[in-house]
Amino acid sequence: MTTSEPFALAQAAADHIARATGVPSHEIALVLGSGWGAAADLIGEVVATLPADEVPGFSAPAVVGHVGTIRSILTRDGKHALVLGARTHYYEGKGVRAVVHGVRTAAATGCRVLVLTNGCGGLNPDWQPGTPVLIRDHINLTAASPLEGATFVDLTDLYSSRLRDLAREVDPSLGEGVYAQFPGPHYETPAEVQYAKRIGADLIGMSTALEAIAARHTGLEVFGISLVTNLAAGISPTPLSHEEVLEAGRAAGPRISRLLADIVAKI
Ligand code: 8IG
Fold this sequence. Notes:
Layout: H1 5-21, E1 28-31, E2 44-51, E3 69-75, E4 80-84, H2 96-99, H3 101-108, E5 113-122, E6 131-140, H4 161-170, E7 175-181, H5 190-198, E8 203-205, H6 209-218, E9 221-231, H7 242-266
Parallel strand pairs: 1-4, 1-5, 5-9, 6-7, 7-8
Antiparallel strand pairs: 2-3, 3-4, 5-8, 6-9
The chain binds 8-iodo-guanine (8IG).
Residues 34, 119-121, 182, 184, 187-188, 204-206, 229-230, 232, 240, 245 line the site of 8-iodo-guanine.
């Protein structure tokens, strides 16, 4: 495969989305991670819902709690938002191209802004499960990159300070932190959590960093927000469970849905 192929596939997906939704171009894209599934409901009026696996390059999601649809939503202020409910994780083993296909598709549909959401483990005990946190920067611990060849992309201010400021106008109580992406799918050992803490991470998860890199490469302005769904291993006295993660998402749902809709309305 040549290095231009992922972009041709993203263009094919964007063409399909334009045809199937009747919306020729979108302005803002959102990727909904664990706990954020219902957040799109308040953003605006659904124009069209496409099963992800009918769009070129997408496949059905592997994880319970992730919605396998691509939606076109008309926001309260008249913007066309593309909501990607189907994230491909690095741990699925489909390759980094598959991981960032949604992001490249969003760019090909015309989007200028990308909102990345996720559920994650928290290292700061002040952030109890259910707390949304702005992503200020990331540490990519996957040892992979979505970029191929001599593609040198500057990642200073990868997570737009303009958009973080705007989010704090909506909710001044929002904290911000550094997100570390581990490859997963296992959670970390307590020793790995201490390592992440010492190198400067506040949040740990299995997504977002690779997507943000691909987004910056295509020129998208990136906004990242995590929902702390559990304290990371060893920070909390109790073992981690996927059930706990889902429950924290359900409990925080209404608040973070409102928050995200209010942020999107301001973008
Ligand atoms: I939700 O504690 C969620 N995703 N790596 N660690 C990692 N990913 C996560 C965690 C966590 N919680």
